[in-house]
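Researcher: Quick sanity check before group meeting.
Model: Go ahead. Protein one:
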Amino acid sequence: SESASGRNADNLPDIRFDEDTHDFGRITQGEKVSHSFFFTNTGKSNLIISGASGSCGCTVPEWPKDPIKPGDKGKIDVVFNSEGKSGYQEKTITVVTNCEPATKVIRIKTEIIVAEVAR
């Protein structure tokens, strides 16, 4: 096993997202929307994602649990639930990996329209 001091930066994995922000545009309050953030391990060793967390409970990420080999692709699926939210929203997902730096932040944005209730 590698010790923290013995790691050569040149041999580290590197997570490179195709995009680090996704705008859902306008959605209706109560809608659940999802998006896949695709990435590539552009480094020289296996990429391990140890976790991913949304900035609030309305944003739930799913990530691959197996190591991603150098040159291989993967994705992080993010589900956003707009229940009880309105207006412009921007949420972050913090991805924790064995890269340097260890955390990478991706974002989703949306404008939530509240449907008028017919009386």
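Researcher: Fine. The other one?
Model: Protein two, sequence then structure:
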Amino acid sequence: MPILEKEPALYPETLLSGYINTCQKTIPADVESVVESDETAQRVWWCVYTRSRQEKALARRLYAQQVPFYLPLVPHHHLYRGRKVKSYVPLFGGYMFMFGDEEERVTALSSNCISRMLPVDDKQQLLHDLLNIHHLIESEAPVTLEQRLEPGRPVRVKSGVMEGTEGVIVERRGQSRLLVAVNFINQGVSVDVEDFMVEPL
């Protein structure tokens, strides 16, 4: 099966990866050092609402200009001219996350790819949510987009490729699923989960 090359989804690669704390909800010190270093003192997190189908175009521009960002991408299989093709599509259509200063915000807006940008007040909560989403994607578990967040029991995965991922147990069609949310945009993804895989928070 042909695979379309995966475009930049995270810059720099160390912005999120490898920082999930498996013991507590707080962001580890090394993440805070990335966010609060002298080099990035003027940067803040932005939730970016892109124009239709402009997520990847914006990601390419930010990558070329070395502006930190995260665009969650997941594999997608489809037919193209009678052949099965694997490509990567945005997990949350129309959304991406940028970590930039005012000058970088203006530069991003000049791309004509953006509908609007909102500053994120609770950066720690956003980082926590994005770290969990990133970990879930990296585990290669098949995910389902969830746009209707429901209350439930908060849990953490105890072992396996998703170890340390935190979320909420929800019921979908009689099956238990682990819902991992990005609260700022009120969306998330879910994966099948068994009781023995998780522990309550």
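Researcher: One line on it for the slide.
Model: The helical segments are 29-36, 55-64, 102-109, 123-138.
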